[in-house]
Amino acid sequence: MRRLSVRARITIGSLVVAAVLVTVALLVVRAQLGTILSDADAALAQGDLTPFEHDITANPAAEVDNPGTGVLVYVRNPRSSVQVDTLPHDIVAVVENRPPRTEQFAFTDDDGRDFIVVGHEVKTSAGSWALWSARSTSSSELALEGLDRVLVIGGIVLLLGFGAASWVLATLALRPVARMRKQAEALGSTLDGELPVGAARDELADLATTLNEMLARVRSSSAREKQMISDAAHELRTPLASLTTQLELAHDDADDAAALAEHLRGAESSVARLASLAGNLLELNRLETEGRDAAAAMRHGASSEELATELMGAVDRARMLALARSIDVSFEISGDSGHTYRVSRTSFARVLDNLLVNAVNAVPDRGAVAATLDEDAAGLRLIVSDTGPGMPEEFLPRAFERFSRPDVARSGGSGGSGLGLALVHAIVVDAGGTVRLHNIPQDFRVEVRLPKM
Length: 453
What we know:
The chain is an alpha+beta fold. It has helices at residues 6-58, 89-95, 138-187, 203-252, 257-298, 304-322, 345-362, 407-411, 420-430; strands at residues 72-76, 82-85, 103-108, 114-124, 127-136, 302-303, 328-333, 340-341, 368-376, 379-386, 434-440, 443-450.
């Protein structure tokens, strides 16, 4: 059954249901008509007794007249004397010793003929008369046999017509599916185009709309992946080329310890940049793959005290980077409500490290970086500000895109990979918060807000 087409399964299923319903309906009609014919035979047999009943009631002492040919009756007076007997012998053998009473029963004689037998008791002053009448049911049986043939033939014709109609209707109903399948085959590997949506607002149109939305998401995801691969290849090319050059120089200067050490330090820097790039890419991919619901289900959250501890650790790490350039890195923590926030300590540490490292790299020597963490009625607020040049206003809307950097940063040899702010944005949004960038006079500020759980 599973190997059949949907159209065939719909048709067969419809035929099975129709066959059951038609069979039940025909059986009910046949039973009702059989009951009607049986009641009609009994009424006719009762009618045969009516004249005798009237005569006996009017004159119980008189002789009963013979009914003539074709009327099957048996009349016995109170003295057990048979006045009339035109019943078949087999029926007489049953009723001749039967006491007078009103009853009705079916009887089949030795020749296989069926009769309906009606008995009636007529009470008079002289005693009770026993009246019996019989009617052959052969005409009713012939009628039922003819009805059976008509019902069987009619049921078969009805089922054939119903099956053909089901096949045609299923074909018409599934025609949009065939169009969608052909269009899907024509989309190719690029998934360009859309599936046809029917004019009727039915389930198939809803399915086509849903599939088109899915195709749009797949195209968008594919485009993002291609762009990411292209950007990642571009970003990896520079540190890999630098690392290759540094290793070649180190090989050439193997006899010069000072030069070799310098080349190795440069190689370590390139490797660190590659490691940072790979780590950020993996974290971004994890956030996008798991989705917000899955990540929230796997995350236990962190308290404000734990997040404050992470801030102090991140500031210490930033101070180590800033020490050589005499950059002041300060922090301030206010509020201690103990609320829990929908972000892990590890993820919050990534946010802090990216923002503080970006700020340290952006400010000139002897500049300043400040981090503030406080709580208010809306939740937790983190502000990282620095005395650097800020970002061009036209770049701010694209600052959270992957591998996006201001032109100034891209032209420099020490520019980052352009993934830091993208990762910050992904983590904050995943935690239900917001992150904003602000250029203010003599200052550049990043503001992160996280809601309470």
